[in-house]
Amino acid sequence: MNPVVTLSGVTKSYIRGGFFKKGEIVPVLRGIDLSIGSGECVGLVGPSGSGKSTMGRILLGVEMPDQGEVAIRGERITGGKLSPKARRAVQVVFQNSLDSCNPRMTARDILAEPLKNFTDLRGKDLEDRIDDLLRKVGLDPKEKGKYPSRFSGGQLQRICIARALAPKPDMILLDEAVSALDMVIQAQVLDLLDDLRRELGTAYLFVTHDLRLIRRFCDRAFLLQDGKLHGFDPKTFVSKDHLPLLSELVRAIPPTTPQRAAI
User: Fold this and answer.
1) DSSP strand E in 17-155: where?
2) Across the beta sheet with 171-175, what order do the strands follow?
3) Which of 144-153, 156-165, 238-247 has the lowest mean pLDDT?
4) Least crowded by CB within 10 Å, which of 127, 207, 229, 254?
5) Is 38 exposed, middle or buried (0-12, 13-18, 19+ CB in 10 A)?
6) Angle at which helices 153-165 and 123-136 pack, to 10 degrees?
7) Can you give the residue range of the structural domain that contains 192?
8) What is the C-alpha to C-alpha distance for residues 25 and 39, in angstroms, rounded to an integer?
9) Higher pLDDT, 71 or 260
10) Is residue 72 part of a domain?
11) What is the rounded distance in angstroms from the CA atom of residue 151 to the CA atom of residue 146?
12) Integer Cα distance of 73 and 70 in angstroms
């Protein structure tokens, strides 16, 4: 499988404190190796502060590792500078759709921005592409003149997905992208992402705290703990490593049918 993104030996540390005394070096990522192929969905779970966001920023080229390297479609990222091709190849959808959209831009303007940055589309061709993106995520193009505040949370997240799809990326980082949605809308958005993966061959790195979503959506899954990736089966939650934290996450999954407490 041709890798879209490859992380090889990626290490990252931060310095904590240090205003009045020597700062403490805190390792966050310790030799991360990960490859994601075309059309593949890889799940990533881990406690708060485990380094998931740091790994995402490095993968996007926003932050550089202390050691190791990142390659996007075989192009090694160096010095935080990405070519237009590499920058187009990996896009992101954040958890809070309202905060990730400019409230003064209409849905049309939100989608037009990446199209103008990454393509030569202008005029009618640009408008047709915007309308097509809205249809792909199940929205009516007639709604493109509305501002973010006029959409529901689920609708606005669909616009964010359409924005990520606009430059035709090879992979999308879904950073808790459905966590703020109710379960019905979650299912609808995941079905949409599944359809787009089959249609377009888009790969996903799916970051979440919810193992139920990992089971529903992912081909492979990893737990990020103590700066290292530990693989586990996304359907059975079984790992060859001894992972007490994974067992705790499994026990925390709500039962399908609520249990009546003994009186």
Assistant:
1) 24-37, 41-45, 67-72, 75-76, 90-93
2) 90-93, 171-175, 203-207, 41-45, 220-225, 228-232
3) 238-247
4) 254
5) middle
6) 130
7) 3-251
8) 37
9) 71
10) yes
11) 8
12) 10
The CATH number of residue 231's host domain is: 3.40.50.300
- The model's pLDDT over 123-133, given as tens digits with 9 standing for 90+, comes to 999 999 999 99
Cβ count near 219 (within 10 Å): 17
Which two three-digit tokens encode residue 141?
């193009």
- Give the pTM: 0.89
- Whether the pLDDT of residue 34 is over 70: the answer is yes
Three-state SS at 232: strand
- The one-letter amino acid code at 258 reads P
CA–CA dist 263, 260 (Å, integer)? 9
Euclidean distance between CA atoms 179 and 208, whole angstroms: 7
Q: At what angle do helices 123-136 and 107-118 cross, to 10 degrees?
A: 120
Q: Max alpha carbon distance in the chain (Å)?
A: 69
Q: Which one is predicted more confidently, 77 or 67?
A: 67
- Please, what is the average pLDDT of the chain? 89
Q: Which of 108, 71, 95 is nearest to 206 (CA)?
A: 95
User: Does residue 259 sit within a domain?
Assistant: no
Look at the chain and report how many structural domains it folds into. 1
- 194: tokens are 């599944």
pLDDT band at 162 (very low <50, low <70, confident <90, very high): very high
